[in-house]
Each structure stands twice: as structure tokens, then as C-alpha cells.
Amino acid sequence: MTAPTGSIRSSLRHRSFRRLLVALAVSQAGDWLYNVALLAFVYERTHSAGWVAVTTAVRVVPVVLLGPIGGVLADRFDRRRLMVLSDLARVACMLGLTAVAAAGLPILLAPLLAALSTAASAAYPASAAATTPRLVPDADLPGANAARSAVGMAAVAGGPVVGAVLLLLGSPGVAFLANAGTFAISALAVLSIPAGPAFCPARSGERGSVVADVVLGARALRAHPAALRLVGADIMCSVVYGMQTVLLLLLSRALGFGDAGYGYVLAGMGIGGILGTALTSRAARSTHPRRVLVLALLGVAAPAALMAATPCLTGLLCWAVLGGAGAVLVEVLCETSLQRDLDEHVFARAYGIAFPAAIAGIVGGSLVAAPLVSAVGLTGALVATGVLTAAYALVVAVPRRAGGRHRAARLPQPAALLPEPQEDVRPAEPVAV
């Protein structure tokens, strides 16, 4: 049976994209695999919650601060080389952490190496996002992005579990060493993709300063109202998720489900995200994309608010699955629209701003959750997450003005990049909101 155009199965027909997806899966699993071991190691050595908090923070902050620079690098240099160098640098950081654990070196080195590992990945997301449209036909782009999102969800859900198992079987150093292996495998997977135009940036002419390039990426987003609304929707879902990482822990304990219940609900969100990828091809083909985005946002808003009035774990799990599906739909619609509608010459720089902004939304949401509970109570805070998302959905529903100045000027795909012959595949309509 032939896979529907635009589905995950359809995108997996293309060999080079499959290899990129393997690299992403192993690399992202590695990013999450060692997190449990790292925090356990730091706490074991310091017995300080403050040290654990600092270690967690330094793993996130470099993504937010260096993401725009990573986008600039992805628009200047060969993206295949950037991804391989990123993986190799993270191999070195993991080997350094292994040495810290094995030799009893100063614990300060642990968060520093974790921060360096995150910093080394700054150009990776923009490089992968900019390369994906070169490896699959436009019609299969939603499926390819859905596959990348599913891999990310699986890494978030499964990586810590694997890390915890490795801790049970050995010391934190074993987990760090295993993690170094994941990044090495990722580098080999990227190297297995033939070098060539698929990884070359589309830029030409004089290079400006890094600051000027970051500003240009911001202007590209600002000049494109549809892109701004989609990025805003993705950030909104990230803020809600960040708030829920705190609020759902408090709710689970208040209902007597404990930390285990909290873990189940977060896992439900991940499962919902994976299930939601099955809807992305149909959503991307819709002739009413703004309506689809509004429904996806409401699919996040309603479950978030209804959790406040749900006293049973089964109900919470149902809402978590629905919310996760809505969030991944927003993410895939956002990414596909940016890839299709922004000029290739500026895409990586624009993505280098959009991606860190979503990560910053998670951090911001987690920080405001506790003060919000103090101000309006746990029930009020949970309802507020839904109201906030629904309010943004109403903003999206307002008809937009004429399209921005950075509409797609998509370059024809070189014959060498066409992975396999396709059967009467027509490009899908651009997603515009």
C-alpha cells in the first residue's frame, strides 16, 4: 500500500532523509540520556539542590543565547560539516564528564562541560531544519517535519529512562561514556549522507557581521506576518508546557498521585505528540490553514484548563494526550510554513531566532508558574494556561493582512538531490496563516 503524500511514511522513502533522521534520533536521545545521570552525579557529590538547579540552567541557557549565532553559522558554512563537528565536540564533552566522574575531578567541571556540550549544538537545529527541504520533495515536507518532531518527543520521553537504567547498572561515568557513543553514531550517520548542494547554504555575496546577520533574521520574521503568528503559536505552546512542568507536579501531589502520577502525565503528553504527527499531512494540505492552527491551539488550551477540574488520573492522561497532539500540530505547521515561505538565503538565521525563542518560552513558563499559583491558586493557574492559549487562538483567528516581503523564492531542486523517482507527486500548497 502506497503511503499518502505528506505523511511520515512517505518522507521515509527518501534514503538521505532517513539517514538524517537516524542522526537526529541518536543525537537528541544523547542530549536527554545523560541528564538523569548528570543531575544524580552532581547531587551525589554536592548534596545541594542549588547545584542541581544551576546545572539544569546551564544546560538550557546556551540554547537561548547562542541559537541565533547557530543560525548565522548554518547560513555561512557547510551544514553537514557543522553537524559532524557539533557531534564530535559533544563526544569530547562526554568523555570529559566521564573523566570527572572516574577521577574525582572538581565538580565545577560537570556543569561547565554540560554547558559546553549544549553550546556545541547551537548550529545543529538550524542546520537540520534548513537541510530537510533539500532531501525531500515539497509535498513530503510536512511528513518529514512530523518525523523530526516524533523523534524529538521520543527522545524526551525515552532518553531519561535509558539514562536511569544505565545508572542502575553502573556509575554515572558509564552513562556519560554511553552518551559519547550516541554522538559518535550520530556523526557517522550524517557522514553517510553524500556531501553536496543539499548541505550548502544558499547565501551569496558579502558577509556582514554576526550581529547584522542576526538582525536580518529577525527582520525576515517581522516582515512575514504569517511566520510571526506561527512562531508566536509555537512559543505559546512552549510557555504552557513550561508552566505545566511545575503545575502538574503540584496537581499530582494534591490529588494523591505523587511523583509517579506526574511522570505518567508528562509521558502522556509525549505519547500525544507522537500520535499527533499522524494528523500533520492532512493539516498541511488543508485549504483553511488558519482554521487548522486555531483548532490546534484550542486542542492545547481546552485540555490545559480542564485538568483543573479532573480529579482522576485517567482523565488527566486523556487531557495530556490531547494537549500533546495539539502542541505537535502547532510545531509542525510552524516549521513547515517557515521552510516553505521564507527565502532560503535567510531561513537558517530566522530559524536560529524562532527555535531558541520556543526554548525560552519553556523556561519562562516554568519560572512564572510558582508566582502564579501564589497569586491565584493552583486551580486558577491551571485555568489560566488554557485561557492564555485560547486568547492567542483568537488573535490568530483574526484575518491577516497581505503577505510579507520574504515570500518563498524556492530554488529548483537539483536533479542529484531527488532521492527516488516519485509517482505523480504535486507540491502541496504553502501553509499561510
Give an overview in words.
- The chain is mostly helical and 433 residues long.
- The chain has helices spanning 8-11, 15-46, 49-74, 79-103, 109-120, 124-135, 141-169, 172-191, 210-222, 225-254, 258-276, 280-285, 289-306, 313-341, 347-397.
- The protein is globular and about 50 Å long.
- The chain starts with 7 loop residues before the first helix and ends in a 36-residue tail after the last helix.
Number of domains as seen in the coordinates: 2
Q: CATH topology of the largest domain, which one? A: Growth Hormone, Chain: A
Give a short account of the largest sheet: none
Q: How would you classify the quaternary structure?
A: single chain
Unreliable segments of 5+ consecutive residues: 402-432
Q: Tell me the radius of gyration.
A: 21 Å
**Residue share in helices?**
over 70%
Structural class: mainly alpha
Report, as a whole number of angstroms, the end-to-end distance. 33 Å
Find the count of extended strands (DSSP E, 2+ residues). 0
The helix count comes to: 15
How does the SSE layout of this entry go?
Blueprint lengths: L7 H4 L3 H32 L2 H26 L4 H25 L5 H12 L3 H12 L5 H29 L2 H20 L18 H13 L2 H30 L3 H19 L3 H6 L3 H18 L6 H29 L5 H51 L36
Helix pairs in contact: 2-3, 2-7, 2-8, 3-5, 3-6, 3-9, 3-15, 4-5, 4-6, 4-8, 6-15, 7-11, 7-14, 9-15, 10-11, 10-13, 10-14, 10-15, 11-14, 13-14, 13-15
Structural descriptors:
433 residues; mainly alpha; Growth Hormone, Chain: A; 75% helix; disordered C terminus
Quickly describe the structure.
By secondary structure, the chain is mainly alpha-helical. It contains 15 helices and no strands.
